[in-house]
Design goal:
Rossmann fold, Arc Repressor Mutant, subunit A, Elongation Factor Tu (Ef-tu), domain 3, six-stranded mixed β-sheet, alpha+beta, 30% strand
Amino acid sequence: MTVRAAFAAVPAARSRPPRPAPSRTRLTLTNALEDSSDRMRSEASFRRRVQRMTGRRPTEQKEKILREVTIPETITIADLANRMSERAVDIIRMLMKQGAMHKITDVIDADTAQLIAEELGHTVRRVAESDVEEGLFDSPDPEEMLEGRAPVVTIMGHVDHGKTSLLDALRKTNVVSGEAGGITQHIGAYQVMTPLGGLVTFIDTPGHAAFTAMRARGAKVTDIVVLVVAANDSVMPQTVEAINHAKAAKVPLIVAINKIDLPDARPEKVKTDLLQYEVQLESLGGDVLEVELSAKTGQGLDKLLELIQLQAEVLELKANPFRLAEGTVIEAKLDRGRGPVATVLIQRGTMHPGDIIVAGAEWGRVRALINDKGESTDGAGPSVPVEVLGFNGTPEAGDRVAVVENEARAREITDYRSNLKREKAAARLGAGRSSLADMMSQLKAGAGKKEFPLIIKGDVQGSVEAIVGALAKLGNDEVAARVILSGVGGITESDVGLAQTAGSVIIGFNTRAHKEARAAAEQAGIEIRYYNIIYDLVDDIKAAMSGLLAPELRETMLGNAEILEVFNITKVGKVAGCRVTDGRVERGANVRLIRDSVVVHEGKLSTLKRFKDEVKEVQVGQECGMAFESYQDMRAGDIIECYRVEEIKRSL
């Protein structure tokens, strides 16, 4: 049988079946149940198809959206990119082209940010941190809402001219008896009813020279100034200062010539003396109102009140009482029982308990309003002075007060002002330290300067401010007072700790140390001095600072002697035989050895002998033997000049 026949004899059933085509998809339960005849395109294949189709077609450019970008004083690159909807990388690239290397978290100034935004086509709106104060003060009031208000009158003048006595007579009270040393050391604010039926708000300001800033605050919030001049004392330095404050504030002046009941009163002299300061009274043909009065007898008081009310009618004083209140802090203090208390003069609007108020860097919610009679009140309108309780901290005298809508706005304003205050303090500390050469020159200039460190605590802000200002004027090139800390309130343990560290004295003005602070001061040996009159405080500090001044050395010439011969004595050394040619020579006095009109030695005379005896002094024309301390080079013909050095204490 042939091979072909053999193969043909094999049964057909034993032949291999054809192999199935490989599956293009994974075998899953879903694929097994579905009809496998439909083939699915893979995701990668679909992506390639889309790329081919879009590659042949021109891509559409997205239209760039231009925005109005708000730029503050400083901004980070990331924040600027978000506000413009741009990539931060593009901004950094633009800065690199200008030669500045930055990271995405770096802060750039507003000018740089504005240049970048405008180059990218955006519009810019600049804002500043101070914008938080916009609309806080001086917003206009509609004319129909304005109503008449009481005039605010400031009483000014020299110390001891009777300002507070005049106010006592008007109020029928006795404030003077409670004042230390007979001088006003605070600003007082009161309301008085006039004979014509109107109210007048009086502000009493101190007359002492140290209270210049307080008088200036009184002039800023006032409508009329009453200048009190004593008829027996005429015009004095603080009188002139009060005239200048009134002129600077551009307010009308009324001159009250006080103490006309005294036998030595000379009102005509007062009128003529005022002419040299451009104050021309009505009786001399001028336009300044005047009144002669006596606070002691009450003469002329009604006339003064009438003049004030007539002047107020001429001024047509009006304010809107139906708005959020605005005012000025006249005085501020820290009361241990009530906390920070501020005397506020309301100028516009009406303040109520519960209002949220801002004054300087402090804010709070009004807990209570106390009027000038010490009574609680439900509201204080224009020209009404009140004590405000509820501040978080003690505001500074002179700060403007405003009622705000909510607590968030109050916090925003005070945070900005606190930051501004810190920056100014840091700038003052860093001023003048621009280079190493400047620092070295400052060190040389103050190398021999002594400082008198002090910690000042007072009852009210105005008094502390006046004390610090007065002490700053005491120093000279050799010694100066340095106030380490000044504040309002009692003396605390932290004050004592600071005094111990700085080696300073603590001054309490109308305030006292707490029990714990007293114990700590006794243990640490820190001196606490209490005062209630500013004269005494300034005089004591001045005397203490004078003790730091180096004494002045003054030479008193005694006489001259000529060396005739020099003797060399065993165990003693060289002794000069001299003749006194002028004055006298004393043992132990200072001497100069002069050779050929040149001083070759200065020292002291150790030995003075007359013959063989030691003597205290030798008179002119007599001969003696002299020896110097630690000096032997003496020659015949030299001149010995004898003098005494006296130390004279200096004072500021």
